[in-house]
Amino acid sequence: MFPHLADVQVERVVREDGTVVIIGRSRGDPVPCPVCQTMTDKVHGYYRRRLADAPAGRTPVVLEVTLRRLVCRNYDCPRRTFHEQIPGLVERYARRTPPLAGLVAKFGIALAGRGASSLLAATGVVLSGTAVLAALMALPDPQAPVPEAIGVDDFALKRSHRYATVIIDALTHQRLDVLDGRLAVTLEAWLKAHPTVRVVCRDRSTAYAAAARDGAPQAIQVADRWHVWKNLVEAVEKTATAHRACFTDPGAGAARGEGPTARRTRARHKAVHALLAQGASHGQIMRRLHLSRNTVKKYAAAERAEQLIHGPKYSTTVVDPFRDYLRKRREQEPSVTTWALLGEIKAMGYQGGQSLLYRYLDQGRANIEHPPPSPRRLAMWITSDPAKLSTTSQARLHDTLQGCPELQAAADHVRSFAMLLTADHDGDLDVHTTRLDSWIDKARNDPHLPALRSFAEGLLIDHDAVAAALALPYSNGATEGVVNKIKYLKRQYYGRAALPLLRKRILLT
């Protein structure tokens, strides 16, 4: 029943105040001196130890064992007497037996302090949350050899205020270390202390790039493919925003285009470009037109005023489910009144009011089969696998691209870059570098796509890491997964955990 008591001579078992007390003593076998390892069984005296043991049937168990104080038989040994210990059961300064200590540690790793304390009480172990955390912090950090390939990423201890860096094995996904801060010097010092690292997988952070360059010059940096693709999606969305006049419905956007905001935008655009044609600097334009520097830059970068005029932005309403019916009904009978349409859709389950329907029809939202897509949705269509889009989305994307040569060119660039990312990671760095350079040259030489040109120039800054991402089978996705688990651990602390405690749980879970 108690296999861990094999080295204890049990004398009796009693029950005291709802606690099972196991009373015993050591078996009296010779034991080695902790200093000179000389075997001895010469007794100097006895002492008693009382340790909490793992509960039995939700009943607390206490081990009360009598041990010896022994005399070393080696007269040259500096240790004259020493206390007897039972390895695996009674250790120095221990208040709990190894089975109970292991149980408390497992609960602490899984639930931290307060949660572990509550659940342990249900099993018969009464400990405070502070005692559980102390047991957790006393656990040794797992020791593992530093691999050749690592992944690094940052996570927030307090968003926008304090961050930390997690380092994992890029192949086995084992957590290696957690560093306080995300500055380049922090990771650089760790890399210098572990010169065996040969591959560093990271996101596109310039701080981590500098740390890997200075701390591990022998290592190959691999940019995360997901972050590269995310940056491309953002560039496509900026392009769609700049050309939203090409896919905004003319009928629905006419009223918006004649509004005061649109007129002011056109007037400012005309004034800024007129001054630029006269050779005025941005600072002079700021003072003459009373605009901020960023506003002047925005107007100066736009070739046409339409690029700065937002199309209509409508939120979802309760009229949307009846849009197709309203459109077909007005096509069949153009003279039908709004009041009549209100009665018809109310019979179909419409729960809104008259004013909402009037405004919906006045905005022209029922005049077209589909409302114009937002720049973000259009960017999603362009950067998605065509096979994963619905037939309707494919048709709408095709119609939109046919009406805008710039968006069609952006879609062509996206398809060619997707082929680079999905190619086999065969390790041939030269071939993938040549393909990447070719794509960058084409994107940089396209004067009508400034957002993609900026993205391509960003690839040049991180050129070697991006090329390695195309050629090598490494990814930082596993590190992102670890960061998501860290966010779950943080929620258990409600933001009050210090980094040493959080680090301990990150390494042990």
Describe what is shown at a glance.
48% of the residues lie in helices and 16% in strands. By secondary structure, the chain is of the alpha/beta class. The strands form three sheets. Strands 1, 2, 5, 6 and 7 form a five-stranded mixed sheet that branches.
Structure description:
The chain has 509 residues and is an alpha/beta fold. It has 21 helices and twelve strands. It has helices at 98-111, 114-123, 129-137, 184-193, 206-215, 225-242, 250-257, 260-277, 282-289, 293-301, 323-332, 338-347, 354-362, 375-383, 391-402, 405-422, 429-444, 450-461, 463-471, 477-493, 499-508; strands spanning 8-16, 19-26, 31-32, 39-40, 43-56, 59-71, 81-83, 149-158, 162-169, 175-180, 199-202, 220-223. The strands form three sheets. Strands 1, 2, 5, 6 and 7 form a five-stranded mixed β-sheet that branches. α6 (225-242) runs antiparallel to α16 and α17 (429-444) runs antiparallel to α18 (450-461). The longest helix has 18 residues, at 225-242. It is elongated, with a radius of gyration of 35 Å. 28% of the residues are buried. The model is unreliable at 250-257 (pLDDT under 50).
